[in-house]
């Protein structure tokens, strides 16, 4: 059955009008390139100030900040694994990113949130494998008792968008 609470779309995550967006950050939480850079630029310099007070973040874990100039009220920063060939617990660490981000959202009473494709840019995680993990974790989470009403997967490129759609359709079968 198609879960109406999951939406796959193409676009920029900084524009999303949701309670929280997820950032694919690095362990310093002090900004970087890719989606992390875009989020810091759009949120403004106060975000970095708050991030500085958090003392970094381990791979697989997640931390919450305000959204500042973003339409989103909160940002959940998570650190995906760097792909090293698949024998370094990368799958489990990526799954933890989704699980821990969702746990924070639930604890905050958040009802709408948007994920980027964590680890599949600079960190090199194979896209097909990563989006299967992302969708699996979100579906498992939504199968439990939750206040979350809508989860967007915001794909930046058309290639990512197609891959997510394909994985989603395969999982419905
Ligand atoms: N909205 C949605 N997705 C985006 C956006 C955007 N505005 N911009 C890029 N993407 P990456 P990672 C996509 O490299 O692999 C940073 O420097 C992008 O096309 O941002 O987890 C951090 O500081 C790709 O599909 O994150 C870390 O050092 C996805 O976001 C490192 O990169 C993730 O690509 C983290 O690497």
TrEMBL record:
InterPro entries named among the record's database cross-references: Macro_dom, Macro_dom-like
Gene3D superfamilies in the cross-refs: Leucine Aminopeptidase, subunit E, domain 1
The Macro domain, residue ranges: 1-172
Coiled-coil segments on the chain, per record: none
The organism's place on the tree of life at top rank: Bacteria
SUPFAM superfamilies tied to this protein: Macro domain-like
Name used for this protein in its record: Appr-1-p processing domain protein
